[in-house]
Write a structure and sequence with these properties.
21% strand, Rossmann fold, 214 residues, 8 helices, alpha/beta
């Protein structure tokens, strides 16, 4: 089996995007506050990549290659770095489809272009708009979920998707060390909610939860 993550045309696109993301501290940021709505925040940060780490991307690729989910859902596509890892794994498996979500029109357009450049566009549908609306119609059963958007929305998005999670589905939450993820962690770490959950030590943390009971 091939590993497209390490070869052209996927690898050059990832290398370019990771290099661009390294300059996030210099990216222009528009005005917003803690009381801004999600669309206002997304527009203010449209030039910021906010990517997963390279190690985190490799973990996602490995999980999909192993689990072979038919439906993968991503909350927070941004410029598509994480999406490229998800799509490469689906493509290499020869089965499945990725549904991404993104509020920023600028990022939606860029992510689609990056996926096309990597030869992975056919494996991904990016849904523009509020994830609490756009992800409501993604067909189940969902085998893997990546949460990497606004941290305060991790739990509402998970609850939206929970009725469509397949038995044994994996839910991966990036940036799990952030204080705003605490409520989400309380949910997936409580056995009464049907998950077995572990913390994985990548940059800023990842929480990997298995939907062990429905």
């Amino acid at each position: 089996m091939s590993i497209s993550l390490h070869t052209s045309p996927v690898r050059p696109v990832l290398d370019r995007l990771f290099a661009a993301a390294d300059r996030d501290d210099d990216a222009p940021v528009g005005p917003y506050s803690a009381h801004s709505g999600v669309q206002e925040r997304a527009d203010a940060l449209e030039a910021v990549y906010m990517p997963i780490s390279e190690r985190g991307g490799e973990l996602l690729y490995s999980l999909i290659r192993a689990a072979r989910p038919q439906t993968v859902v991503e909350f927070g596509t941004s410029y598509g770095i994480s999406t490229l890892h998800l799509a490469a794994a689906v493509a290499d498996n020869g089965t499945g489809h990725v549904y991404g979500s993104e509020l920023s029109d600028t990022k939606v357009e860029a992510a689609r272009a990056n996926l096309a450049e990597a030869g992975l566009g056919e494996h991904v549908t990016i849904l523009p708009g509020d994830a609490l609306r756009t992800l409501a119609d993604v067909p189940g059963p969902i085998g893997l979920v990546l949460l990497d958007g606004w941290k305060d929305l991790y739990l509402p998005v998970l609850r939206l998707l929970e009725p469509r999670l397949a038995p044994g589905a994996l839910v991966v939450a990036d940036d799990s060390s952030f204080p705003t993820v605490a409520g989400y962690l309380d949910h997936v770490r409580d056995p009464a909610n049907g998950y077995v959950s572990v913390s994985f030590p990548v940059e800023d943390g990842m929480e990997i939860s298995c939907r062990a009971a429905l």
